Amino acid sequence: xxxxxxxxxxxxxxxxxxxxxxxxxxxxxxxxxxxxxxxxxxxxxxxxxxxxxxxxxxxxxxxxxxxxxxxxxxxxxxxxxxxxxxxxxxxxxxxxxxxxxxxxxxxxxxxxxxxxxxxxxxxxxxxxxxxxxxxxxxxxxxxxxxxxxxxxxxxxxxxxxxxxxxxxxxxxxxxxxxxxxxxxxxxxxxxxxxxxxxxxxxxxxxxxxxxxxxxxxxxxxxxxxxxxxxxxxxxxxxxxxxxxxx
Amino acid sequence: xxxxxxxxxxxxxxxxxxxxxxxxxxxxxxxxxxxxxxxxxxxxxxxxxxxxxxxxxxxxxxxxxxxxxxxxxxxxxxxxxxxxxxxxxxxxxxxxxxxxxxxxxxxxxxxxxxxxxxxxxxxxxxxxxxxxxxxxxxxxxxxxxxxxxxxxxxxxxxxxxxxxxxxxxxxxxxxxxxxxxxxxxxxxxxxxxxxxxxxxxxxxxxxxxxxxxxxxxxxxxxxxxxxxxxxxxxxxxxxxxxxxxx
Lengths: 246, 246
Prior knowledge:
The structure is a homodimer. Chain A has helices at residues 27-39, 75-82, 137-147, 197-209, 215-222; strands at residues 2-10, 46-47, 56-66, 87-94, 107-115, 129-130, 149-152, 167-178, 183-190, 239-245. Chain A is of the alpha+beta class. In chain A, strands 1, 2, 3, 4, 5, 6, 7, 8, 9 and 10 form a ten-stranded mixed beta sheet that branches. The longest helix of chain A is centred in the N-terminal third of the chain and has 13 residues, at 27-39. The interface between A and B is medium-sized, with 23 and 23 residues.
């Protein structure tokens, strides 16, 4: 067996998410279909993060066990010919047999993009959530700082979450502003994320931005009080898995 | 009659171009459909530029004669509710009865975007032409400078062009590089453009970039020699009508 990892980017629009499903086209399904052609047998892949329907990736990582070796230099181009245009393999790498795309990951970086133009920017509509109007950036920065560090994020996970421990560390919650492009971007870097955690965090931060929630309510939610301070779940199109760090 | 102008942006992917057609969905068709709902009667619009199938716009301008006045502040939002998500009206303005979206235009600005990453960037694939590999930027700059000014661009028009005179002035042919985003953009500002002129110019510039054409061949093509130096027509997805200046 030749364990191989792939770095993959995709436009999640129109896909039923990363994970394979019976009744929807998925990223995993498309990748496995292309790999089956290349290796002439069905293969199962494991992803670093199971992104939801409509969520994108610039640097998703997957691994699989190949029945034979193919040059890592040639593999991306060979797969890209077979894949739909919205899924692009950026890199392939032979890895150790104990490498695991999800369990070996040390950190993940997600971005969440907001289109701040008065009317939606057509070229961003697949990759940003359109949120015009008043926005208190100072309050959001304050709230974002409260999220950094090691906390119990139980209030920020969706029901049906399989995680045992809900303690996670956020190393970084940045807010980047691109005024020329009328774009605002949240960056989350953490050792792991609960189910829908980023979108729930963004949902809360957006309420803070619209002055419908005090920054202090975020700290209270982390302390287990006021779980109603968490969310709502921000729409999927703004979210992107930027990078997985091993 | 209330002559009204609209500033419109669109993602041209999947549309049969700006101009109304029988067998394809077009930008004009979609705009006229939405206007007919608002004004409760069929209206005809005139655009500043008839962008081809797959070509985009950030600042297309159209005009039409409305049977009654609607607040220019409210009109964009009312139209955007009716339009598909890839077409967005940015501004409405009451204009003089002799204003003409195309004939009153003094200048137009087009951009052409190249994705220079080794594999296509999924989030740019609708709005940039993927061209990896060696590229002689210096030679392209030299060739671009030769295009600036007033010339007979006959060599750079597609067959079936309705224009009588083929003399046009290019005020500016810029090349912008965004190395962080692996993006290269050509900007063309001119008093008017022949049919497919920008895409033919880009086609020539790309041949210069790949060192398959000397910059001097561009000057020769402008002088009427070597018409084979013009083109080929660069693919539509890189092209965007940025702005119309009146």
